[in-house]
Design brief:
Length: 392
């Protein structure tokens, strides 16, 4: 029985009592989801306050490592060799084989750390440490022992089976998705909103998304781009529901009846209202946008004040204090950048004013919106009724 598995280590701050189960169960679910598309069959289980992902037979090791490195809640994970207990001789051979396979250069210092969870094992932990250490030194004379600050810690855990591991790979940290409620992401085809969704999901929040398009002013390619962005972030966030709202008639009405320098703000306020409708129907506790103070005219403090007023749910803006450069950097890291910069038209850019207000006043905006009374309500009703839902 020589199979490979991964030992998953997670942060334990604030996850005592009942929360611990919720945290672990959500993490197990997310790990299963992440490994679903990796070649191989995996069994994910929690035992003794640990989570293991065990491979049943051959599997794509690099693919599994990549998938696990995207699961929020994982602090570190270790590739583990699991062997049956067939005596100390077999154990030392397995440990030396593990070193042989894992380290190309053997001139490192090491320490063996044995945990004997099965107390009837014939050797004490200290004895296993010493005897295995001796065997490693004999087999790899370039190595040396350092019990204080070793370069490599070789862990041996003795239960019914014996686990051997020495490598730790960094996870993304954060909280497993599914532990912090749900929120609705306003997802455009830009650089910012996918990053905002990623960051919120990293705190354990389940994400749904809404995209406003304006056919025929925006094309199917622009819509496909948003679907592609949703797919990229769903690798981190898990499956997602994407509401695609036809915004054309509302936008045309605003364009026709409202001052052009206020178009973007008024449009954004309608987006908030519509997003909130679907958010509330799905028990979301907030809205998420990719806005950041001062990035464009519609994101000054005054503009954000006006936008916020249109929503009753809290609006989360994880990028609020980020420079564009930092957002670009993050989007490159999570893999959305290349898709975000594809040059397809956005519904906001088509109806954009030459000189948008940078310091809108809410009273004036509300007055302007009154020009839409009796006109826009049926258009909003129709947009809500005709929504297309894409399961990502
Ligand atoms: P992004 O890069 O996310 O598109 P941006 O810097 O281009 O943002 P705006 O176009 O002003 O900024 O949009 C601000 C925010 O409003 C976006 O981050 C997004 O959350 C939301 N938003 C804008 N346009 C749309 C749209 N067509 N569909 C859904 N949400 C949108
Ligand atoms: Mg945009």
């Amino acid at each position: 029985m020589n199979y490979q598995s991964f030992l998953i280590k997670y942060g334990e701050i604030g996850i005592k009592g009942k929360n611990r189960y919720l945290f672990e169960d959500a993490l197990v679910n997310q790990i299963r989801f992440a490994l679903k598309d990796v070649d191989g069959t995996f069994h994910v289980r929690k035992t003794d306050g640990r989570i293991f992902a065990e491979a049943d037979g051959a599997f794509d090791h690099d693919g599994a490592v990549e998938a696990l490195s995207k699961v929020f809640g994982i602090v570190r994970f270790c590739p583990v060799k699991v062997i049956a207990d067939e005596g100390f001789e077999a154990l030392s051979e397995a440990v030396c084989a593990h070193i042989e396979e894992t380290y190309e250069k053997k001139d490192f210092s090491f320490k063996v750390e044995t945990r004997r969870a099965r107390k009837n094992y014939p050797k004490q932990s200290m004895e296993v440490n010493a005897d295995l250490g001796e065997r490693i030194l004999e087999t790899f004379p370039e190595t040396r022992v350092d019990v204080h600050t070793p370069e490599v810690r070789i862990h041996v855990e003795i239960r019914n089976e014996i686990s051997i591991y020495s490598q730790e790979i960094e996870g993304p940290c954060g909280m497993p998705v599914g532990t912090s409620g749900k929120a609705m992401l306003l997802l455009s085809g830009g650089i910012d909103s996918p990053v905002a969704g990623y960051m919120t999901a990293k705190r354990g929040v389940t994400i749904e998304a809404v995209y406003f398009h304006a056919p025929p002013y925006t094309s199917d390619r622009a819509k496909q781009k948003v679907i592609d962005l949703a797919k990229i972030i769903s690798v981190y966030t898990g499956p997602m529901k994407l509401y695609v709202v036809n915004f054309t008639d509302i936008q045309l009405a605003i364009y026709e009846h409202c001052p052009h320098d206020e178009l973007t703000i008024i449009m954004r306020r309608f987006m908030m209202q519509i997003a909130e409708h679907f958010a509330k129907a799905d028990d979301c506790l907030g809205l998420i946008t990719g806005e950041s103070i001062g990035q464009v005219a519609s994101q000054t403090m005054q503009a954000l004040f006006c936008t916020d007023d249109a929503a009753t749910l809290p609006v989360y803006r994880p990028l609020i204090a980020f420079d564009k450069q930092d957002i670009v950097h993050l989007s490159e890291q999570i893999g959305t950048y290349e898709t975000s910069i594809l040059p397809y038209e956005d519904c906001c850019t088509i109806f954009v004013a030459k000189h948008p207000v940078t310091k809108p006043r809410l009273e004036r905006i509300v007055l302007s919106e009154q020009k839409l009374d009796g006109i826009v309500e049926p258009l909003v009703e129709k947009a809500l009724a005709d929504v297309e839902i894409v399961e990502i």
